[in-house]
Amino acid sequence: MIKPLTSLRFLFAFMIFVHHMTFLAKSKSSTLRWIHESILKEGYIGVSFFFILSGFILAYNYRDSMLNQKISKSNFYIARIARIYPLHLLTLLIAVPITIQNVNFELSLWFKQLFFNSTLTQSFVPIKKIYFSFNSPSWSISNELFFYLLFPFLILLISKLKILKYSKGLLIPFLLLLPILMLVIPPIYYKNLFYVNPFFRIFDFVVGILLFELYLKIKNTEKVINYNVLEFSSILLLVVFFIFHSQLPLVVRYSIYYWLPMSFLILVFAFQKGVVSRLLSTNTLILLGEISFGFYMFHQLVLKYFLMLNKSLLHITNEYLIISIILIVSLIISYISLIWFENPVNRYLKRILIPKPKN
């Protein structure tokens, strides 16, 4: 476990949480409306962080064992699916009552949505009613599954090409491909493709794998590095990019605009050697990081159910109180899920599906 990166997972999951507080767009408070429009709406960038981090962490945990054939592709797939699919299935079932009471409910569409969600293929379908159906954050888990399927092949390819050695010939075309596509593809398809579609978001994941190669290169060289300066610089860089985000088109901000500051942040904190890393390595923050997957998967459901309950029974009008309740309930449910569902089910599935090594 890289403790600071574990803790940072919660920070970016929280950014996605506030991004989904869309009811604030109609707030009576001009201050809250401004905060929502200028800050909270940009919280979707947490998804980019998770995609890049996923590539980095998988390379960190599995690169050598994959290259040395100490773990089979099938065991790798089982381990990853056992991590994400049970919670996805649980949240999918919890979302069913919301979908049925929808005023625009169509049975044929509902079965299509159910099929694509249950198979975690919804992000491949460029239709909003499909990829954002049921528990909408799970579209990114659909992407993650696709990344997992490709990871063994990507790590082998990158290793064989010695990607850092030939970076000028390979990285530049790679980095230029998305901006070129953004110029030629009509804007109406921007969100379907550049934000949701796994064939485009795989670029974020590959950036994370390449970042790990850079991490290894730096780690294996003897250099005196002031990690305190680097850690504060990485935070400052992300803040600067965030402050000036409105100067860039939204389609650019879906991914490539934040590649640099997020990659720098992940790379620096992977070394765990600065004062901020020590702060992020406290038990409370690590625990928040460990429940971040559950928090990400549950928060939208908590939001929808609470707003329904509040409209019919509670009638709470204080928006700060509403946000606090949704946050606290999401945190509690995420903790319970980690202890009583995610960890036990994960261990059980790996125990029965992954063969024990022969003596």
UniProtKB/TrEMBL annotation:
A GO molecular function annotation here is: acyltransferase activity, transferring groups other than amino-acyl groups
Q: Which InterPro entries match?
A: Acyl_transf_3_dom (IPR002656), Acyltransferase_3 (IPR050879)
Q: Which PANTHER family match?
A: ACETYLTRANSFERASE (PTHR23028), ACYL_TRANSF_3 DOMAIN-CONTAINING PROTEIN (PTHR23028:SF53)
Residue limits of the Acyltransferase domain?
7-336
The name under which this protein is listed is: Peptidoglycan/LPS O-acetylase OafA/YrhL, contains acyltransferase and SGNH-hydrolase domains
Keyword Hydrolase part of the UniProt annotation: yes
Going by the UniProt record, its keywords in alphabetical order are: Acyltransferase, Hydrolase, Membrane, Transferase, Transmembrane, Transmembrane helix
Biological process GO terms, please?
lipopolysaccharide biosynthetic process
One cellular component GO annotation, for this chain's record? membrane
Q: Where are the transmembrane segments?
A: 43-62, 82-100, 145-163, 170-189, 195-212, 224-244, 256-272, 284-308, 320-341
